[in-house]
Amino acid sequence: MGAAFKETKLPADAPKSRKALAWVDDRFPLSKLWQEQWGRYYAPKNFNVWYIFGSLAMLVLVIQIVTGIFLTMHYKPDSNLAFGSVEYIMKEVPWGWLVRYMHSTGASAFFIVVYLHMTRGLLYGSYRKPRELIWLFGFAIFLCLMAEAFFGYLLPWGQMSYWGAQVIVNLFGAIPFIGNDLSLWIRGDYVVSDATLNRFFAFHVIAIPLVLLGLVAAHLIALHEVGSNNPDGIEVKDNLGPDGHGVDTIPSHPYYTTKDFFGVSVFLLIYSSVVFFAPEMGGYFLEYNNFLPADSLKTPPHIAPTWYFTPFYSVLRATTSDFMWVVMAGLAAYVVFIWLRSRLSYTTKIAVTVLAVVLEIGMLPQVLDAKFWGVVLFGSAVIILSLLPWLDHSPVRSIRYRPGWHKTVYGVFFVAFLVLGYLGTQLPTPAYTLIAQLATLLYFSFFLLMPWWSTMGRFKPLPKRVTWTAH
Amino acid sequence: MSNEKQVDSGRRGLLVATCAAGGVVGVSTAGVLVSTLQPSERAKAAGAPVEVDISDVKPGELKVAEWRGKPVWILRRTPEMLASLKQNDALVADPDSDKSFQLDVPKYAKNEFRAYDKHKEVLVVVGICSHLGCSPSSRFQQGPQPNLPDDWHGGFLCPCHGSTFDLSGRVFKNKPAPVNLDVPPYMYLSDNKILIGKDEEKGEA
Amino acid sequence: MTLTKKLIALLALLPGFVFANEAGFPLDRAPERSDIASLQNGAKLFVNYCLNCHSASSMRYNRLRDLGLNEDQIKNNLLFSGEKVGDMMKIAMRPDDAKAWFGAVPPDLSVIARAKAGTGGTGADYLYTYLRTFYKDDTRPTGWNNMVVPNVAMPHVLWQLQGIRTAKMVKEADPHEHGKTVERFAGFEQVSPGSMSQPEFDTQVADLVAYMEWMAEPTRDLRKRLGAIVVLFLSLFAFLAWRLNASYWKDVK
User: Fold this and answer.
1) Which ipTM was obtained for this model?
2) DSSP H helical ranges for A173-242
């Protein structure tokens, strides 16, 4: 039981709207929520363009949900009717074509925005203490987003939909002992079929969106609990003004309301240009093969996952049996490195060694094949992102105050990621596979060696006030 | 101080303009989404006018066609049936079909035969009771019968709540159904062929 | 250059999603055919030559009104076996029968022009080249083969218009393997003439292919016209939002 009910009394001539708001506020923390979450949420004033992507991600989520609702009014989740129902939406439902293009473009836009949002986190150390939980919730959102996209992609029931789903579900078949039964259970049938389509529909339309909404709420609550980071990576709450707020902070309303509004308008401009002038985006956003109805007897000559999965897909494909020797050597070298150079406790070092020995045995071709380890590396490439708060030991958060050569390290990482992404769209050749393997090594080294390289070099002194010029 | 006033009015102007532009974006998006609920081409095609051959409807017989998912009765009335209609004028609620149910009353229905002058024996009505939507059954036999008055001249009886209609589809007084059966827009393509769902006056329904 | 700008510059290097078609045959450019007369001609060719075996089941006959035809014109010229103008372009042939008679089910053509894009040209380029590179081949069940889809199950439906041609193959030294020979395609040879000259035939196929592109996305032109208005309006909106933001941020010290 809280405090006794206290009714707000306004003078009799107060406007009706204020009285109505007071009535609600007495019974529901409406104004309080507004002020705490946005109106009087004080944020650093030096946010740059990298800080728009969080708000944009929320906007795209809303766009996807709203367009998705209207698509669900006409789409039929039946393997005999699905493909036709999408054409029905495109040609027969008034404005259906526009809603469909908004949804397909929105899916790719979501990933572009989220990847850029994560990049901001990397550049400015937004995942560092005390913001690790924000990063973890964000990581969970990223996983859900990938699942949501994967389930959604089966729904049009085109050739890419079908065979992409078939391949990914068969990945689970690589898990020893339980793999085949697991794949059968996921599909609900011996191959991807109507049963699979219906359950993927349920996941895509309601199950994951609900989880996503919950995670986004948690992500924002965690953020507001500790306050936002900024491009200089300094703690703005360490320097409070007479009003109790950071001297380098401003209230989100009106300043970030208007700034985000502007950011949104630029985004909508780009987004609309794609929707109206290039919805297929050269086959990257709407794949050409998906205009062929699914044929369980004929695989298209070239299957590639949608562009946003290609970096991780590349890692999977790069893991050939030859490459496994490199992985084994790398793991052994890493363990040696941990013994010689880490400050972990003796017990932890022993535990790591034991684990490594088990893994090395597992990696022998007679034990578990490269297909399995490809799946493991594929998963690890995603999961390793969640470990960033504990891998980064740099004395400063932001890239601005790190040694100059750290920028090169980040650059190499980003290039490796983009190279992996590009290679994932192409047919594998021996040359491409070699490059993908190199890029995979660079990708994993960036993270696994971070506890060391992030402390090396001459760091620049942190400023007391944020870097900012009036505009 | 005057600078502040300028800033304020400049800012207010921009605020109004931006909100107005934003409003246009919002309203157009909402409009597009809401329009997707309108009948699709498939629904419109399914609701297209229907051609019916009435050469096989003998006097006294009823043929049922389907238009927009509803039963449409085509009744070729005998001369006796037509003659009995005048006797119902005082007993029906709306003898001149002034009131409409779901469809506007076409000009050619505003008479006691509720049919085209050239083909006054052919009745074309939507067989859906104007009370709550059941389809009435035929009761062409004259004279006293269960649920029907003693001076029954023939017509239709709705099984759901007992409403009765005469051989022109006009509802009798004091029945649950408030108005006459709908006459759909229709036209004669030839003496033996009608097109239900379209007439010359208003085109396609 | 800031890190941000460097990263944006990298994106410019990403090429589009283009693969050669399965045969690796270079595709001709389908001539531009956006006028109504060509599209109507294409519709006529499609209904007469293609709809016997192929369906276009998401295309409604009365959609041809968008090409300037009225319902009577559609009914009198383009409807055959008892279809109504509000029906979809379906066919009577059952897939099982088709498989037995042709060896493969003729695919539905509603969106084929979109499906065949990215194979060395646009979807129209693919279809344009495909329909014009059939040649006589007595080793095939239908007596026909095709350069774009080798060993295709479809016969040369338009042979009476194009006439009968054979493919000239010359033997050459294999550039990759010493001592071996490969066959190289060296053009077509007209064996008997069709009712049209090659240029006339090419024009007809161009119309047909343009119609198929239209059929795959009938709202394409509307989409672009609307897009121009939307982008223009959003540019104005972005400008206003920019100035509004600036008007508030000038107060921040």
Assistant:
1) 0.91
2) 179-187, 194-202, 208-226
